[in-house]
Amino acid sequence: MAEEAVLGHLEHNQEISDSGVFSQEKGIDHDELVNIIKSLNGFGLVIAADIKREKWLLSDEAQSYVKYGSAEVLLFEAVPAEGTAKAKLQEIVKSKLPADLDDTTKSLIYDKGWAQAMKNKWVGLADSQVSRKVEHVEDRVKDLLIQIQNGEAVGAKDIDALKRRRLISLQIWKGYSVKKGPNYAPKRKKAATDLVRDHLQRDEWKDIEFKEYNFLAKGQPTEGGCLHPLYKVKQQIQMIFLQMGFEEMPTNNYVESSFWNFDALFQPQQHPARDSHDTFFLKVPSTTNSLPEEYVERVKTVHESGGYGSRGYGYDWKREEANKNLLRTHTTAVSTRMLYALAQGPFTPKRYYSIDRVFRNEAVDRTHLAEFHQIEGLICDRGLSLGHLRGVLEDFFSRIGMSKLKFKPAYNPYTEPSMEIFSYHEGLKKWVEIGNSGMFRPEMLRPMGLPEDVQVIAWGLSLERPTMILYGIDNIRDLFGHKVDLSLTKRNPICRLGLN
Amino acid sequence: MPTVSVGRDRLFEALRRTYTQEEFEDLCFQFGIELDDVTTEKAIIRKEKHLEEEEPSDDEEVIYKIEVPANRYDLLCLEGLSQSLRIFAGLEPIPTYTVANISKESMLKMHVKPETSQIRPYVVCAVLRGVTFNEARYNSFIDLQDRLHQNICRRRTLVAIGTHDLDTIEGPFTYEALAPKDINFTPLKQTRNFSADELMEFYKKDLKLKKFLHIIEGSPVYPVIYDQKRTVLSLPPIINGAHSAITLKTKNVFIECTATDLTKANIVLNTMVTMFSMYCERKFEVEPVEVSYTDGRSYVSPDLSFYQMEVPVSYITKLIGVSLPAHESARLLNKMQLHAKHSISDKNEASFTISVPPTRSDILHPCDVAEDVAIAYGYNEIPKITFPSVKPQLLNKFSDLIREEIATVGYTEVLTWILCSSKEISTMLNREEDKTAVINGNPRSADFEVVRTTLMPGILKTVGHNKDHPKPIKIFEVGDVVLLDEKKDVGASNRRKLAALHCGSTSGFELIHGLVDRIMEVLGTPFVSPGDKTGYYIESSNEPEYLKGRQAHIIFKGEKIGTFGIVHPQVLHNFDIPDPCSFVEIDIEKFL
């Protein structure tokens, strides 16, 4: 009805100048009219312009004053001419109030009336006796409220006083002026936001009008799961290893013995990495149940007095140290087991890789966690050299977008020569260390039983570091662990490593 | 890795030239050390005291903090570090350290009592005669002890060093182990006498020393060194006596290293004496001390002999992967302080006899020798040798990654035919004849007339044949279309497209719009305002196969890469689809 009124009015008139006036003329609820105007405006049938007006609105209390008189007048009139005890006043006042008021309202009128009548010095209190102090009073408050209700002008001082008594409040009234819009028609077509089956079945689609669509906003978000950014990077790096002919090592064994984690790697028992400051040693199970005894003997000898051309470390190697269990500090413990297993048969060249969790007893900060993922690759073959190591590193790192490398001499107990890998970071404009590499020492390989002319070139890096560089993350806790923001995981784009 | 702080100016003086920071960093990088930080004495103090950062004044001495490899104890002081770099630069020959030739009778003696085996069984000693200290040398001497204690000595558990003014004490010395109450002396920095058990209590409040107390605490006997007059030299590994403390004026220094590991005790002693014998009257000469045990064992320390190692020339060159003439390898070895004597064996095999000086305890095996040649040659000069490996086909791998993402948000993959009828790409899509299509010359049926120019007909035919499938139907395809292309030798080329469709009781236009946003998100493309060429935006379009007002182009980097919209009811009718559908098609090659 409202829609017909608006469109019908505009068919013969220029405009509707004020929706408020229009609603009264047509006897339409103003809120309903506003909704219709907004809808017509959205489809371009009309053009609506805002109108704002300020209006004083009477509180419930004020409305009761308009009806019955203000509280102070009601109170004044209730006080008998001869006066009364203060204790009895409330009862007297309530008895004289209109019977259709409930008790709570009556109490309220009494309280407010008393306070205001005292303030106006209409009544007085002496020796618990209340008495009238003036002959008669005028109900100015009621008169003012009636004027305001009728939309008549009232002085600023009075407004202020009524406002302070919370009898009136300012309300902003909103309405519209309305003109014909570009899509104006005396009657609008069927409006829709989407094409539905009914439109097709009843062949109505030709008559429908679609509400304008906002292409500046995004569509409805998709639903579905997402993979973790770190594992997306891991998947790509696994693909790279496979393309380079590497096979994956089984790394599903976090608990390791010191023997496989350190001793077998020719890492001396006094090495700082074997401190409890760096390694999680286990209380349960505290020691390993078994080790390959003949191999242990050869490892002990190479530590104590060398062999295979080495002079050894010259210290008393202790079996108890080797037996201590720990959470593996590097996946090289797995590589060591794999190479030992390889050495037990006729030699075949191998290329191995792994990407899995390792543990360090470190304080957690922006760049360190107590656990992280290590990427490791190794080639075991005859006649390998540093030239091969450089070649394989250049190939691997260029595939993960790090094509500018340089190598720094470094120390690592189980590799010699050892090379630290640095990559030039175009964003930071500097060389950053990204990993370590080297050739496993003969003192590590020969006790396993690998032939003398077999070398192993290997490299390792964390999965987190290149990922942080890739995504510009500077706090490792934002990438990995329970503090990761799920919405970041959802927003994470596909990982294009290995696609360059 | 240990860090050594050295004054930059003193270092450059010792290197006989100055470097810019960058030049010095390059030198460090080649040699295998790292300039970790550049600071000043005052800045270090300010940092320790947590004071506000002040502007450093020019007169403050610049300190270089240099990281050195954990097994190079000879680099833990300015003396050794600068000497190694001078030799590396070819400025100086390898020094020859000698043990003074004195008779056994006139040699200082240290007697070891059997009780020491209960707590700290070994000791080695040496004397530096005629040392000239100044403040810098003295500080360096003290610092080196600290760093050795911290590193190879494993916080004094394995080895503890004591240095004494020899002129205040008198040999022969005894190394004993006594009950704590029986040891009495005035320790360093104190003015009164303490018994050893009293001292242990006293040092529990000492921040620096308290961490060493556990090494002997609880033992019935404590190790102690006396001179002939029962003067206490030291209570290892805790503290020295005040009596024999060295000063700037000390000329003759007695050094004792007590240990639980004899090999490391020798390395520590050798490091101390080789580094500071350069300040002796007879440069690089060290006076020996005879150590004897009650059971008759005895030895003379220090042992400064060279460790000899036979290394085939080919072993080195094969390991590095560079063919070097023997004399060149030898020259490179000399830069790393290793003597190399070239010889030909009986089997006509060229080999080196390598002499490892006492400063290079890190050389254990020929592989360490090979590494030194590689370092001196330059790691970054070694030619790369590549292995065969394969690379993925970028477009296909990329398509696979996108396919996974679209399936992940609930769309099922369809695989439709490349060939279709010509009306399916024209009139059935409310379009004119497609002039960009490749046309088959001999189609067996109308179904194979042309090569598709859009994925739309295949997907619509799939919906038309799956009417009974529960709604909504959400499907996608990533595949090639073929367009005429004059730039190609054959006149046509493939384009990789992505298409997706939603069909249900409503068209799902907003869902397809949302899918477009998701595709852009997983491709790392930001949503931007119209006109912005750094990302993508959506622009209302007017294509005949879509419903008017419910269709738009996708603009990426200013270029139209695709369209989405509610499929036009006439098109739906043409493909016999009773339900409303929304569809998107994008060229994904733009994202490579």
UniProtKB/TrEMBL annotation, chain A:
It comes from the Eukaryota. Residues 232-493 form the Aminoacyl-transfer RNA synthetases class-II family profile domain. Its EC number is 6.1.1.20. Its cofactor is Mg(2+). It is an enzyme of class 6 (ligase). GO terms for biological process: translation. This is phenylalanine--tRNA ligase. It comes from Salvia divinorum.
UniProtKB/TrEMBL annotation, chain B:
GO terms for molecular function: ATP binding; metal ion binding; phenylalanine-tRNA ligase activity. It catalyses: tRNA(Phe) + L-phenylalanine + ATP = L-phenylalanyl-tRNA(Phe) + AMP + diphosphate + H(+). SMART domains: B3_4 (SM00873), B5 (SM00874). GO terms for biological process: phenylalanyl-tRNA aminoacylation. Keywords: Aminoacyl-tRNA synthetase, ATP-binding, Cytoplasm, Ligase, Magnesium, Metal-binding, Nucleotide-binding, Protein biosynthesis. It is an enzyme of class 6 (ligase). It holds the Pfam family B5. It comes from the Eukaryota. It is found in: Cytoplasm. GO terms for cellular component: cytoplasm. Belongs to the phenylalanyl-tRNA synthetase beta subunit family. Type 2 subfamily. Tetramer of two alpha and two beta subunits. This is phenylalanine--tRNA ligase. It comes from Salvia divinorum. The lineage of its organism: Eukaryota, Viridiplantae, Streptophyta, Embryophyta, Tracheophyta.
